[in-house]
Amino acid sequence: MQDASKLPLEVRTYMREIGLRPAEYLDKAIEKSFGYLKGGEIIDEMNRLFDLDEAIRRSGRSVSGRQKEIVDYVNSSLELSLLCSSYYDWHVMRAVMARICRYSEYFGSVILDVGCGNGIITLFTARHFRERRVYGTDISKAVLKTASALADRLQMPTDLFFQPGDSLKAFCDTVMSIRIMHENADAAKYAGYLAECLKIGGTLFAFERVAMNEPGDEIVRMYSSAGFMLVPETFEKIYCPTGDEMGSFVCAVFRLERLCR
């Protein structure tokens, strides 16, 4: 984990501005923000959704529908979304943003954040690269609505968020994938989709979750099979708290050498 005092100033400033701060207890943060009664209702509903999700996981059935229901509920308001990000993502978000700053030289003039979620990373990227075009795309209308609300709060354009479509082929010079690979049942297909979004010679900035005992070779292999070449000096294994657990991640930059069909 990176010492907060060693983070780039723009990362610390941005996190304070949007209200992203470490929350030791999510339930207490929700009750403080929404009040005891309303907060209690929110906590009960989140617990219900997470319990159903866990039951489905244990049964071996697909959880994609339940995950969407959780994501949509968490993003039913900007405040709830930011509170959940403060609890689950505070350490991860600052690690991602610090590495966007560190590897700025690899980012092109048109940047696409695939699976942008509530837009925290997308909007930071747009601020960091003020003279470039930055977009965020996500399949969830709820998170796109939340992302646009955050953009509006920051007095930034809200039209940079949209749902994905067929028009994204060779759309950008840089594509970002932040903790998305592990959510896809067909990781190879997802890697191929990212490649199709890029122009040949473009770059992929990846920050992907991996198992604790996984060195990251599988991530490299999966992206390599889609035509990406690892930039070796950018590869890094990172450990960050995610809520009450410790998460293991791989961060790296890849360059698209060819399309593998």
Could you walk me through the main structural features you see in this protein, from its secondary elements to its overall organization?
With 261 residues, the protein is α/β, with parallel strands linked by helices. It is built from 10 helices and 8 strands. It has helices at 9-18, 26-34, 36-59, 64-74, 78-88, 90-102, 120-128, 141-153, 187-197, 217-224, and strands at 110-114, 133-137, 161-162, 172-178, 198-210, 228-230, 236-242, 245-256. Strands 1, 2, 3, 4, 5, 6, 7 and 8 form an 8-stranded mixed beta sheet that branches. The protein has a domain at 95-256: Vaccinia Virus protein VP39 (Rossmann fold, 3-Layer(aba) Sandwich), CATH 3.40.50. Helix 3 runs antiparallel to helix 4. The mean pLDDT is 91.
Helix-strand blueprint:
Layout: H1 9-18, H2 26-34, H3 36-59, H4 64-74, H5 78-88, H6 90-102, E1 110-114, H7 120-128, E2 133-137, H8 141-153, E3 161-162, E4 172-178, H9 187-197, E5 198-210, H10 217-224, E6 228-230, E7 236-242, E8 245-256
Parallel strand pairs: 1-2, 1-4, 2-3, 4-5
Antiparallel strand pairs: 5-8, 6-8, 7-8
Helix pairs in contact: 2-3, 2-5, 3-4, 5-6, 6-7
Which descriptors apply to this entry?
single chain, 261 residues, alpha/beta, Rossmann fold, 8-stranded mixed sheet, 10 helices, globular
Number of strands: 8
Q: What's the order of the H and E elements? A: HHHHHHEHEHEEHEHEEE
Globally, the shape reads globular
Fraction of residues in helix:
40-55%
- CATH class of the domain at 95-256, anyone? Alpha Beta
Radius of gyration: 18 Å
Overall mean confidence score, pLDDT: 91
Unreliable runs: none
Number of helices: 10
User: What fraction strand?
Assistant: 15-25%
The profile of the biggest β sheet is: 8 strands, mixed
Distance between the termini: 38 Å
State the secondary-structure class. Answer: alpha/beta
CATH superfamily of the domain at 95-256: Vaccinia Virus protein VP39
CATH topology of the domain at 95-256: Rossmann fold
Architecture per CATH nomenclature, i.e. the level-2 architecture of the domain at 95-256: 3-Layer(aba) Sandwich
